[in-house]
Design goal:
The chain is of the alpha+beta class. The protein contains 16 helices and 23 strands. Its EC number is 2.7.1.30.
Length: 505
């Protein structure tokens, strides 16, 4: 068998390809950013064709850097930004419209109407999700209703839908020349269109959004010994490699963090933050603003479920300090600037740029910086930005405890922001539990590799994967309880100030 597994990690701001060995060690990687298209307030789009071009480029560059070829890869896994919606023509391969990104809020009227007329309760029960702009169903409906010719093309089977995993799988396996149209339950569970119990598209849910079933991909296991397809010899890998793993990015990180037992949790710090708690084969329906989602489905085994707390803006708030405010030149500088002051100086920043996700689900909220006085400096704003990441995570942990009864002993963390050691210390202080970062911090790509490798016997079991996990660093709380609760009370007061800022019909 070949010595390595490849993982394509297509994220909100960039695309990377990584190669791992049997020990879960990174062999090589290459990463490229893509354009963030912002046509108007609340709208966020990507160019699917640019994403495919970036995908080709990062795969080729990574193989060249490692001096490897397709024959060195036992399998290929894909992980992706979830909910981001692409509709394209299966005959020409051209998208009808830009990809509508998970952060986009243009579908707020669709979500509000579902909630108003009672359909929201059906969606919560069957799909495990509240009606929200976050998910794919409303985005598909918007394209069907607002882009000329798409409704007719969908009815006659020419227009097809996919999240980014489906778009890339289709292109990697031939596109217009035999490309496979598939997804997995972790991605399908983010659409508001799949029944969590049957793991199949639900006709009543489809009717809520006016989505023809013919548009939708086949739902296959997240790790499939029967490959979804093989890469094309004329594609970026230059030969046939079985595609056997497909996981939404946050579920992939959960697998990469080897959270295979009920009660184990991880928090990924990326563009947003996403905390997942493995609930095993128990489908826990949230009463506290969490999402019920599929964690993974490995081959023929029963699906494993999770509770998820999704936070829209965390790492992208740091990016906002750089790109929109210009008070830092790079993400790494946020740590040095924030460290110039001992505390936030009374400043709280709630980055509700696209409303608030878990546990609030308030599309009428918008970002606010509160508590300012002339004493405050850009260092206080930088510190408040890092604290916002941590306080939003605490909101989710509190809601998850309410739903599951599970109190965390330790929080496993991963993603780019974990390189900010001040932020991770703040997280331990604000939560009151230790925070643990693994040696391989890019666990999203690693999880996709694990899913693909398990399918072909590159790894034999999840127990074998556990042996690969090693701690790199641990942060323990230094705040006392009074400091922790005082800070959190200020945060909750600041969050309330963001509510009702925009009118939602």
């Amino acid at each position: 068998m070949a010595d390595f597994v490849g993982a394509l990690d297509q994220g909100t701001t960039s695309t990377r390809f990584m190669i791992f060995d049997h020990g879960g060690n990174e062999i090589a990687r290459h990463q490229l950013e893509h354009e963030q298209i912002l046509p108007r307030a609340g709208w966020v789009e990507h160019d699917p064709t640019e994403i495919w071009e970036r995908t080709r480029a990062v795969i080729q560059s990574t193989l060249n850097r490692a001096n490897l070829s397709h024959g060195d890869l036992a399998a290929l896994g894909i992980t992706n930004q979830r909910e981001t919606t692409v509709v394209w023509n299966r005959r020409t391969g051209r998208p009808y419209y830009n990809a509508i990104v998970w952060q986009d809020t243009r579908t707020d009227r669709i979500a509000s109407a579902l909630e108003r007329d009672g359909r929201g309760e059906t969606i919560r029960h069957r799909a495990g999700l509240p009606p929200a702009t976050y998910f794919s169903g409303g985005k598909i409906q918007w394209i069907l209703e607002n882009v000329d010719g798409v409704r007719e093309a969908a009815e006659n089977g020419e227009a097809v839908f996919g999240n980014i995993d489906t778009w890339l799988l289709w292109n990697l396996t031939g596109g217009t020349d035999g490309g496979v149209h598939v997804t997995d339950p972790t991605n399908a569970s983010r659409t508001m269109l799949m029944d969590l119990e049957t793991l199949d598209w639900d006709d009543q849910l489809l009717s809520f959004f006016g989505v023809p079933r013919a548009m939708l991909p086949e739902i296959r296991p997240s790790s499939s010994p029967d490959p979804y397809g093989v890469t094309r010899a004329d594609g970026p890998l230059g030969g046939e490699v079985p595609l056997t793993g497909d996981l939404g990015d946050q579920q992939a990180a959960t697998v990469g963090q080897v959270c295979f037992s009920p009660g184990e949790a991880k928090n990924t710090y990326g563009t947003g933050n996403f905390l997942l708690l493995n609930t095993g084969q128990d489908l826990v329906r949230s009463k506290a603003g969490m999402l019920t989602t599929v964690c993974y489905k490995l081959g023929d085994a029963a699906p494993v479920y999770a509770l998820e707390g999704s936070i829209a803006v965390t790492g992208s708030a740091v990016q906002w300090l750089r790109d929109q405010l210009g008070i830092i030149s790079g993400a790494a500088q946020s740590e040095a600037l924030a460290a110039q002051v001992e505390d936030n100086g009374g400043v709280y920043f709630v980055p509700a740029f696209s409303g608030l996700f878990a546990p609030y689900w308030r599309s009428d909220a918008r970002g606010a910086i509160v508590g300012l006085s002339r004493f405050n400096t850009n260092a206080h704003v930088a510190r408040a930005t890092l604290e916002a990441i941590c306080y939003q995570s605490r909101d989710v942990v509190e809601a998850m405890r309410e739903d599951s009864g599970v109190s965390l002993d330790v929080l496993k963390v991963d993603g780019g922001v974990t390189a900010n050691e001040l932020c991770m210390q703040m997280q331990a202080d604000i939560l009151g539990v230790p925070v643990s970062r693994p040696v391989v911090a890019e666990t999203t790509a690693l999880g996709a590799a694990y899913a693909a490798g398990l399918a072909v016997g590159f790894w034999n079991s999840t127990d074998e994967l556990r042996q690969n996990w090693n701690e790199d660093k641990r942060w323990t709380p230094t705040w006392d309880e009074a400091q922790r609760e005082s800070g959190y009370a200020g945060w909750r007061k600041a969050v309330e100030r963001t509510f009702g800022w925009v009118d939602v019909e």
